[in-house]
Amino acid sequence: MILVGDTDSKERNIMAALKKCVFGVLNVQALRTPSLFTAERNIKRWVAPTLKEMKRRKLKMGPEAPVHRSTFLDWNYHSELYAFGKRLGEDFRKDVLQCAFTHRSYIIQEEMKQKEVGIEDPKLWLEDNEELAKMGEKLMSEYLKQHLRVALPRFPEEGICGINDYLMSDATLAHVSKHIGTTDIILCSDFPVTDTTLAKTFKAIVGALAESSGEDKAREFVRDFVLTQLAGKDVNEIWVVQDPMKILTDILKRDGKSEPEPRLINECGRNTILASYQVAVYCSKEFMGVGYGETISIAVEMAARDALKRLFQTTENMKPIPFTMNVNVPLNNKFKQNVSVDNWNSKNVPNVVQC
Hints:
- Helix 12 (244-254) packs across helix 13.
- 51% of the residues lie in helices and 7% in strands.
- It has 13 helices and 3 strands; from the N terminus they run H-H-H-H-H-H-H-H-H-H-H-H-E-E-E-H.
- 24% of the residues are buried.
């Protein structure tokens, strides 16, 4: 005879055992499966096609037009002028600094706007930066030339002028002007601001600093921001000598020496695309310079250039141009120029020992 109660109890025991087995297997799988313990990405399939379509439409619309900073709601022009001087650590007069950032084109544009609304005689009470730019350009050019003459006493005056032209170019001054934060503060009719406008603004800033804090502070400002653009650059690449062998011959003739004699001292790869020649220049059995080239004529030219570098003491291993040296300004503002390359000889240049 089978008791009903016993059957129920057996079934309950069997069901409990099955549950333990099932949940035990699930627990083991949970321990082995890392996805149960990490967040899933859950990226829908519509995300990628939507982003691609948005990018396609953006490219179809073309590049976005640049927006001037003055169009923002939190724009405050006078605060920007005040912050500009404080960022640079200089003390500017507010009216002079505002004049340095105001171009003639902006004044003309604003006058035209007032005439369009019916004002016959518009008056803005603004001054453009023409005079400040001229003052700053003159001060910068004189200081840069004098500093280079003191730092490179044996370098010809044509080389000094060539380096000065490089530092005073619109590309160099625009690079400096842009990185000191003048782009958003300039008042002009063109936007984006051109390199010419940026360079002119920087010259006007130098003039404004001379008016506000004196010419000594303006020279230090030019030294810190403009002269330092020569760091890591070769002055011989900025001023390239034309016909170096003729110039070397003329210099040696003025020194009372014989003409330079180029000699082929090494070569490899003749009659191949990897040909290389090494030529040295001698004068009365005295070594003058050495050069390399893929042809003999190029090697001779490079050797003559190397000889001139040794005479001018502007070789690749020269001592860097000192930026912190003091340059005395004469009372009559007449600086002594270096010797011209047409009159250069070893007697009329200072004998400086290169470190």
